[in-house]
Design goal:
single chain; 2 domains; Ribosomal Protein L25, Chain P; about 210 residues; RNA Polymerase Alpha Subunit, Chain A, domain 2; alpha+beta
Amino acid sequence: MSDQFEVAVSARSDIGKGASRRLRRLENLVPGVVYGGHKDPVSVSVVSKDIEKSLENEAFYSHVLTLNFGDHTESAVLKDLQRHPATNKVVHLDFLRVVAGEAIKVQVPLHFTNEDTCKGVKIGGGMVQHQMTEIEVSCLPKDIPEFIEVDMTNVEVGAIVHLSDLTLPKGVTSVALSLGADHDLAVASVTPPKGGAAASGDSSDEADSE
């Protein structure tokens, strides 16, 4: 995790839906909250264009951020964000403070590799489908991975890649898998080519008619 991200935030005392709307409409600011870390929650605001720019970088979502209040800084991760359903603009941010020796739960993106050379695609003519694009993991702040790789090289037609098939970095665990085997969810699969099942059925019918 070589990237470093700093977010300029301002503490605010005016809270509520009306105040949040005024921030967004009149001042081009995005309201948010900083919580956790054994401290009281603090309502904050962030410059809209700055946060939108930061969010263009995938790594921003899975890194420990430095929140700069001007007179002090705090370490946090972006825990959640809300976007407007029509404009897709960010309308609220949740930052979770991190403590160096305490594990946290974060969403980490999945990077699917070798899809073009996947056995089920190259040999079987199938198509890769993603059931997930990110997974929730638990780890110390220093161990947060920027992404988790899903190697599709040897996945055959009809096969499913589950959470338990992923190789996680040392010190990183899947939150879902920690709940038991019933939570070993599908991450990706290779579906048969269109018409494949029908073609097999036609062959069987012809064989039966003979």
